[in-house]
Amino acid sequence: MGWTELIILASGLSADACAVSVTNGLCAKKITVWLTLVTAFFFGFFQCTMTILGYILGSTFTSYISKYDHIVVLILLGFIGVKTIIDSIKDQDSKIVCVRISFTTLLVQAVATSIDALAAGVSISAVSGNILTYSAVIGITTFFLCILSVLFGKKFAFVFKKRAQIAGGIILVLIGLKIFIDQQFLQ
User: Fold this and answer.
1) Would you say residue 6 has pLDDT above 80?
2) 168: closest CA among 104, 120, 123, 121?
3) Please, are residues 59 and 162 in contact by the beta-carbon 8 Å criterion?
4) Within 13 Å, how many C-alpha atoms sit on residue 171's CB side?
5) What is the rounded average pLDDT of the residues 134-139?
6) Which long-range contacts (CB under 8 A, 24 or more apart) does 27-33 make?
7) Which residues face 28 on adjacent strands?
8) Which DSSP letter does residue 28 get?
9) Distances from the Cα of 175 to the Cαs of 5, 135, 149, in angstroms?
10) CA-angle at 164, arms to 160 and 170, nearest 5°
11) When you count CB atoms within 10 A of the terminal residue's CB, does the N or C end of the chain come out lower?
């Protein structure tokens, strides 16, 4: 996977975290620099960590799936992408309530939105990617995009949440298809 695909993957994986960050920005009683940075750190840290954990789990089983790695990547990224799109479409709750964003709230949000990164880590192990580079790029990309998302949420309406999630889901499916096509037909 090249740098372009990696940045696109990182952006796609961060879509859920960004959507939640937009919502946090919109719903928080008061947005401070500290809250913005802590929110972005939580999401970036968990995206990075879960990618590494997925890689470790995937590496354990690589010898069993090496013949089918491109199919595994397609299935995992396709599943994540389709799930993101479906979740976005099913989420019809448009009522927004201002709340205090707590440590526990951020922790639960960060873990929940990083499950996709776990599956991506498994996918990265299947294509023998450099996990330290990949996870760092995923975490840093998520961090910066979440900063922008909190600020965006504070500035603009809730309307854009679904579009960001749908775009992220489509990006993940397309990356899965690209890797599958590259491995299946171009090697």
Assistant:
1) yes
2) 120
3) no
4) 20
5) 94
6) 27/96, 27/97, 27/98, 27/99, 27/101, 27/153, 28/98, 28/99, 28/100, 28/101, 28/154, 29/98, 29/99, 29/100, 31/150, 31/151, 31/154
7) 99
8) B
9) 7, 16, 23
10) 145
11) C
